[in-house]
Here is the input.
Amino acid sequence: MGGRASGTPVLQARGLVKTYGRVVGLDGVDLELYPGEVLAIIGDNGAGKSTLIKCLTGAEVPDSGEILLDGRPTHFRRPQDARAAGIETVYQTLAVSPSLDIASNLFLGREARRSGLIGSLFRIVDTAGMRRRAREELRELGITTLQDVTVPVENLSGGQRQAVAVARAAAFGSKVVVLDEPTAALGVRESRQVLELVRTLRDRGVPVIIISHNMPHVFEIADRIHVQRLGRRAATITPQTHTMTEAVAIMTGASEG
Here is the structure.
């Protein structure tokens, strides 16, 4: 297993509250993500998982509470703020451009320019350089199913598209990578590849938050499991201290953990 819950958390939430009119999305949620660990977030629909992730990644601004990065209070007003701080998110609805090739998708919104005047004045993109870096990144992540970075993403399978999105997050997420249901629409073999990718990220020292309904995957990959229930953190458990059945019991309120 990867990181242990010790030292200063890379990312921490304290008492996050988020309401939508009379609907309470988050009701004083705490969360800690430590260096080099995989933290899974589980919970029933409506438990506040998505709201929590949106607050941690700048897509929503909490009404109260605080978010700390490396122990320092931080304020994300939009997703770009979180990305600038090194937090990359791969949402369930993959933000890939099907018509563009793999390399272009990896650098989407961060296109590398050619050096000198041709890049600065005419804004000519360094296609060869991006393709070279894309190959290096995919090789380092152990993604062997994407050899040709010039292939349009629309020609890829679901698992390969997921791999491109995760590789993009890994390439630029220097602090934290957040994965929202990364294996939801994938078959057994492709799910296995994505889980291996998560392990590789962790082994590279990048902590990962993974939101998943798939309990076997959660118990296989997670170092710790944050159980979200009715807008609050019901418990933090590990695959060593609890069984899947016990986790579900905490999640549904049948057990207090």
User: Anything to note?
Assistant: Residues 16 and 65 are 4 Å apart (CA to CA). Residues 102-166 form one domain. The longest helix spans residues 188-203. The chain has two domains: 1-86+173-257, 102-166.
